[in-house]
Design a protein that fits this description.
Elements (H helix, E strand, L loop, with lengths): L3 E3 L11 H7 L13 H12 L27 E7 L8 E6 L4 E6 L4 H7 L4 H5 L2 E8 H8 L1 H25 L3 E2 L7 H8 L5 E10 L3
Antiparallel strand pairs: 1-4, 2-3, 2-5, 3-4, 5-7, 6-7
Length: 209
């Protein structure tokens, strides 16, 4: 299995107005078992944490080039993907690499059942073909903003990014639901996260029932 999966280039136009998407957006908790396409998960990840103009490369990485705002343009988050049923993308646990618009394979196990058990449990995690995992690296903001960065700016950043996922999912005819209730230490063990990475959100993504 290849260590990297290059994702399709994201689209920058759609068929619905922003106002229509606002009107229809809601938390979707029941999913079909239908597979996602590479272009769909590419679009979701781009909305969550992507570069607005990937083709411009390293020169524009960071400040003003993300799809969401971050306090001090620090971007203290990382996005992982639990992929279980995505066409042409093997099941596994991946790290999203925005600069390359690619997935880096961490390991090739389907983690849905393990995540389901530590999220008190929520069936949508077990059924959805993919889940985004938001983690925060607190030192990135605390070095500059201290405790205020940890308590205030990280939650703001996650809210900005997660709302993008909600809106992009709705625009694609998909659904998602942000989950913050889970066993913190349990998820760190299941995902084998480094000590500095703090799990914040699980966002299952799939076709709503």
């Amino acid at each position: 299995m290849s260590e990297y999966v290059k994702l399709p280039h994201p689209r920058t136009s759609g068929d619905q107005s922003l106002e229509e998407i606002f009107l229809n957006r809601r938390s979707r908790r029941d999913f079909q078992t239908s597979s996602l396409s590479p272009s769909e998960i590419s679009q979701i990840l781009w909305a969550a944490y992507g570069l607005k103009e990937p083709e411009r490369g390293k020169r524009y990485t960071g400040k003003a080039n993300r799809t969401w705002p971050s306090a001090g343009a620090i971007f203290p988050l990382e996005i992982y993907l639990v992929a279980a049923d995505i066409i042409d993308i093997p099941s596994g646990f991946y790290h999203f690499i925005p600069d390359e618009h690619a997935l880096k394979l961490i390991h090739d196990k389907d983690l849905r059942e393990d995540l389901y058990k530590i999220a008190y449990p929520r069936e949508m995690i077990r059924v959805a073909p993919a889940s985004l995992i938001y983690i925060a690296i607190e030192s990135r903001v605390m070095d500059r903003f201290g405790e205020r960065g940890r308590q205030r700016y990280i939650p703001m950043d996650i809210g900005h990014s997660a709302q993008n996922v909600y809106l992009q999912a709705e625009a694609l005819g998909l659904g998602t639901c942000a989950i913050g209730a889970f066993d913190d230490e349990g998820i760190k063990q299941v995902l084998d996260l480094p000590a500095e990475e703090i799990p914040m959100y699980i966002m299952p993504v799939g076709y709503p029932v």
